[in-house]
Amino acid sequence: MAKNSKLYKNILVIEDNHAILDVITLILQSEAYKVSGLNKSADMMEHIHTFQPDMMILDIMLPDADGRELLSQIRTNEKTANIPVLMISAKYTAQNVQHGPHKPNGFLAKPFDIDDLLDKIEGILAGKTY
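The line above is the sequence of Response regulator; the predicted structure tokens follow.
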């Protein structure tokens, strides 16, 4: 195992639906990921700084923000630019998720299959783009 790889990967989930956030959190914890969940974007950058996520799962439709604009914030800040992001949405599709110059590392439509979610997370953490 590489010296610099942490055993447990930190995943930050930003999703305003508590049921979905709880399900994602439970699934990821059962797979030995460390999960932190936010149900709005308000303290996102501060939270990223504290939690140091290896990856983020970001809902597009949040009560206080558009996830695509948050993605631009993440990508244009040198401290967070390289954090992989998986976007999830019930309303958007992979074709219309791109908004401006920034693309997520992957996209998953809701409702999603748990295995698809885990496959995409593993793939993105391994450097793949979907």
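Note on the example: DSSP finds four helices and seven strands in the chain. The CA atoms of residues 42 and 64 lie 7 Å apart.
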